[in-house]
Design a protein that fits this description.
single chain; Alpha-Beta Plaits; 3-stranded antiparallel sheet
């Protein structure tokens, strides 16, 4: 396999974002199936990681709690 040293990789940098990290892909699918949560998801970074829209952290946390989950906030910048 040969590589092209001039080839470019497309990447998008996100700063100060909220991520939802799930224990498995099935749970991520369950969250995406929920209308209130899926509208807050800006993208899916992997099968277990969801990128949340800016400014929507509280809405996502509230909805996760309503579903019976106990989300852990790792770092919440001011």
């Amino acid at each position: 396999m040969t590589t092209n040293p001039t080839a470019r990789l497309s990447a998008k940098l996100h700063r100060r974002v909220c991520l939802v990290l799930t224990e498995d892909a099935v749970l991520a699918e369950e969250l995406l199936a929920r209308k209130k949560l899926s509208s807050e998801v800006a993208g899916r970074l992997s099968e277990k990681v969801l990128l949340i829209r800016p400014g929507r952290v509280d809405a996502v946390l509230d909805e996760l709690r309503k579903m019976g989950h106990t989300p852990q906030v790792v770092n919440r910048g001011g």
